[in-house]
Amino acid sequence: MTTGDPFTMTGGRVRLEGREVLRGIDLRVATGDMLAVLGPNGSGKSTLIRALLGLVPLAGGRTEIYGVRPARFRDWHRVGYVPQRLTVGGGVPATVREVVASGRVARQSRWRPSSRADRAWVDRALAAVDLTDRARDPAQELSGGQQQRVLIARALAGEPDVLVMDEPTAGVDTGNQETLAATLAGLVEDGRTVVLVAHELGPLEPLITRSVVLEHGRVVHEGTPPPPEGECAKPGHDHVHPHEAADPPAPLRSWSIGA
Amino acid sequence: MTELLQLEFMRIALVIAVLIGLTAPAVGTFIVQRRLALLGDGIGHIALTGIGLGLLTGTSPVLGALVVSALGAVVIEVLRARSRTGGDVALAILFYGGLAGGVLLTNMQGGGTSMQSYLFGSISSVTVSDLYVIAALAAAVLVIVLLFGRELFLLCQDEEVARASGLPTRFLSLLIAITAAVTVVIAMRAIGLLLVSALMIVPVAAAQQLTRGFRATMLLAMVIGVLSAVSGLVGSFEYDLTPGPSIVMVTLAVFVLAVVGGALTRRRAHRAPAEKVEVEAAQA
Ligand SMILES: Nc1ncnc2c1ncn2[C@@H]1O[C@H](COP(=O)(O)OP(=O)(O)OP(=O)(O)O)[C@@H](O)[C@H]1O
Ligand SMILES: [Mg+2]
């Protein structure tokens, strides 16, 4: 088992189709963090998440998952990923349960059928997103918000130590956002780590321990508590709030960044 | 039927029909899942060049088809992974190249008639030694599906999450492409290269009208595949038709029935809750 922080990126640069999408990102995510990545559309949030996971190559700088470069990282069962998707995808119907169960693939051996423990974790993940009664329905026939919850459950089913979620609450109603908040609170209490992208934090807001705000591929704000509206949210306002463990994260009301 | 079984070529043909009916839809389910329904067609066209090469060099056309279509499948996969459009233009280019190359090469060799049998199939010319090769390839395909099914499902469903789960996505992508190429070669003697892909796709399309899950779709597609291949073959023998197109026509008929059946069951499923509400309202 590798040690070290879940994610460390230093001077991370990403070019896509010749455009510089991330321009030198320094980011450390420590165990037990619940980090929110914020910023306007196109600021590079998804790209940052994908770079942290090694899904897009870096053009400069370096990044590590639990102290290991993504290409050499082997403990993928420790990582759960909820991509930014509108739908579950796939050209063949798959039941909700089948999609969720596929989140355990990193914990399973090619040579063995699914175990009782596998099924128990799938049950737990389905219950965590309140989709137990839809388990046998085709995932593609669910509503958009329900499909989003299927993708969350797929990541939860793998019992990840660090859960990376790209806009997990998009299209999810308030009640189910509260359910998700409770699940995530439980994970962080267990000593797990959460990184999430969001435009509206909603019920997740009080759980966030740190946040970074991206703009044009740069971190323009980092710290606790997250920036209030006003001076800090203005582009060009570039400072880092000091980390003080004694400071409880202040709850925040509104979150319009870059608007 | 017992009469048919007394003919050796018919016994061989029936075994081959069962093997094709099992393997083509099994691989086809992953290909449809990955939204690459035309992959089999592309490979089929490329295989023609392999047959041309095999005929021209006097080696085995089946071996030529196997090698060239596996290479073609790898090229398609590389182009798919690199291009943002999903590689359908790349597929089209390989289609035409494969077809033109195959026809040119066979004409150089002067074997226009044998090309015909590869294009549309001639199951009655399959020998016992062909059967052994086909059976071995079919067994390999089924073992791959069993062993890697879980990983291939996630790969075809969501490639990025598959990578973030630590799956060897490049290897698995090549595996599915090469398995598809092998399946094309298995089916080519019986169905013909131009129609091979139909048996990979149509049973899956039919099955998904009636099923709710991935595994169920694959199993039902395999049942449909075997039934259509066997009945198409027997029917073509009874009525003196070409086996390949007959088999494909049967799968298409099953597809049409499945669409109608699926629409009916879904309508009933939708109506049931509404009726219950009406009953409850009447009781209240
Ligand atoms: N595959 C790609 N090829 C080329 N450019 C890309 C690609 N993906 C993203 N980009 C560009 O990178 C920039 C950042 O995209 P990214 O998806 O990271 O934004 P985001 O902050 O997640 O936005 P959103 O809030 O809309 O999800 C955008 O300008 C986008 O055009
Ligand atoms: Mg995004």
UniProtKB/TrEMBL annotation, chain B:
<feature type="transmembrane region" description="Helical">
    <location>
        <begin position="161"/>
        <end position="180"/>
    </location>
</feature>
<dbReference type="GO" id="GO:0010043">
    <property type="term" value="P:response to zinc ion"/>
</dbReference>
<keyword id="KW-0813">Transport</keyword>
<feature type="transmembrane region" description="Helical">
    <location>
        <begin position="131"/>
        <end position="149"/>
    </location>
</feature>
<dbReference type="GO" id="GO:0055085">
    <property type="term" value="P:transmembrane transport"/>
</dbReference>
<protein>
    <submittedName>
        <fullName>Metal ABC transporter permease</fullName>
    </submittedName>
</protein>
<comment type="similarity">
    <text>Belongs to the ABC-3 integral membrane protein family.</text>
</comment>
<keyword id="KW-1133">Transmembrane helix</keyword>
<dbReference type="InterPro" id="IPR001626">
    <property type="entry name" value="ABC_TroCD"/>
</dbReference>
<dbReference type="InterPro" id="IPR037294">
    <property type="entry name" value="ABC_BtuC-like"/>
</dbReference>
<dbReference type="Pfam" id="PF00950">
    <property type="entry name" value="ABC-3"/>
</dbReference>
<feature type="transmembrane region" description="Helical">
    <location>
        <begin position="243"/>
        <end position="264"/>
    </location>
</feature>
<dbReference type="GO" id="GO:0043190">
    <property type="term" value="C:ATP-binding cassette (ABC) transporter complex"/>
</dbReference>
<feature type="transmembrane region" description="Helical">
    <location>
        <begin position="91"/>
        <end position="111"/>
    </location>
</feature>
<keyword id="KW-0812">Transmembrane</keyword>
<feature type="transmembrane region" description="Helical">
    <location>
        <begin position="12"/>
        <end position="31"/>
    </location>
</feature>
<feature type="transmembrane region" description="Helical">
    <location>
        <begin position="186"/>
        <end position="206"/>
    </location>
</feature>
<feature type="transmembrane region" description="Helical">
    <location>
        <begin position="218"/>
        <end position="237"/>
    </location>
</feature>
<keyword id="KW-0472">Membrane</keyword>
